[in-house]
Amino acid sequence: MTGLIEDHGIIGDLHTAALVDRDGTIDWLCLPRFDSAACFASLLGTEKNGFWRLAPMGAGPADRRWYRGDTLILEHVWDTPDGSVKVIDFMPESTGEHDVVRIVEGLSGRVTMHSELRLRFDYGRSVPWMHRDGGLIVGVAGPDSVALHTEVPTYGRSLTTHSDFAVSAGERVSFVLAWGPSHHPPSRPVDPLRALDETERFWTEWAARCRYDGPYRDAVMRSLITLKALTYQPTGGIVAAPTTSLPEDLGGVRNWDYRYCWLRDSAFTLDALIRSGYVDEARAWRDWLIRAIGGNPSDLQIMYGLSGERRLPEYEIGWLAGYEGSRPVRVGNAAAEQLQIDVYGEVIDTLARARQHGLPLERHVWALQEKLLQHLEGAWSQPDEGIWEIRGERRHFVHSKVMAWVAADRAVDALEDGGAPGHPDRWRALRATIMKDVVAHGYDPDRNTFTQSYDHPALDAALLQIPIVGFLPPDDPRVAGTVDAVAKELSTDSGLVLRYRTEHDVDGLPGDEGAFLACSFWLVEALHLTGRPERARDLFEHLLSLRNDLGLLAEEYDPRIGRMVGNFPQALSHIPLVTAAFLLADVEGPATGRA
Question: What pTM, to 2 d.p., does this model score?
Fold first, then answer.
């Protein structure tokens, strides 16, 4: 049986990533990109769908594991009756080739090891043709080819490649699995020990650029490394997660493909990267954004592919049983075709933050923003699917209107400070119109709180963005009332925050879900901004305690069963961890909103 979601660690090469269970099994890997078909898919099925286990013979989970310093090099240690052994897993930074390197290192005694490699391409469906070629074991299926190199003997059994060997203290045995197109000669694997040194140097030097020096440095650094690991280096796009269909409700249908780039994450990502000193990554992300959204502003999507692809058709993989029976397993995401008014505000807010942090505002970038604003001027009053991509009836979501206000507000700022050509009066008027409409229809004066949608009493944790984006100042009584209402009505017994109450049937889906970790971090920020720093810090430290032993977070945490749920690791959980840590470390007092 596949381990818990939080039992996994991530390794990657800035093109794709693998998940490694604490028992030494790689049970998820898509090659050559995050959004490619998986060649190890047992995470969403069974062992017949592909995996690679490397561990002491007959052993269970590792006794200890960690990342080597500030890197993405994952190490597991087993203490057996015969001695102790370490397995080092990593993927060297890709330069066109893609390698998974696994190094077995004897620590004491003499330990018998077993490697079991079962390749199954096309999400666990295609059994490759395996053959030997010049010292390599090569597997080919359709467009994909992999080559395994190791210095120990291997043998085939049940369409699986096995190896049995022993290591003593100080000995090392390496395995390298290299991917390449099947119409090319087999990829020559990297030198494993040299690649280990180079990979450690790369991540250590990258981590050294981090500017955060507060009390939560380890958590911030691990989150930033995770965000870097989710970056598709050729374009600068950042995927929401490296997985698809890890369920938000175990055994249910709330299973989505997150291997794409969401615009809603863009402002948060840029803010976290620039605050932390990663200007190059922020610039690459901004440039990806500009390329992706180019064209008719009415065609703006909520998400795109790694290179800005627009078509992300959703379909189901019927031969995979789903994580713990959670079906269907989906590839693609139909939400790419939804209307979400908030993305206009998120894009323009992202570009405003970039300008504030010194990234130049080129003329063509401002021209694009003007086109987006002109379209938004006539579109903001429409009902939409909202930030949470509901699959029910469209509504007038308050958060969507607030983000439309943000778009107009940031345009006014750009024009008033002389950074952009033109006059701000048009966008001042739009800003005032949206504000008046939201207060008239999205605020409940009897309860002193804004609501999820117009003229409806339900609440939404996205309302916590109101003071964060500066829609209203934190000392406005309506802001404090909204924060208190969300904390009271959407919090679980453990203090974590739900996105909304699923029993209100807003999303058109059966089942329930766990607490949304990004929303819980937003509550940290909102509490701090509204003058409750001790409550903010207590909640923040509680959230840190929910990370797995490697410092990683999924999309959600279900306090009813004490487990992570949703895709993993999740960028939108790690991003507000970083921004909240910066806010809590601001001893001079926070600004009234990020922008």
Answer: 0.96
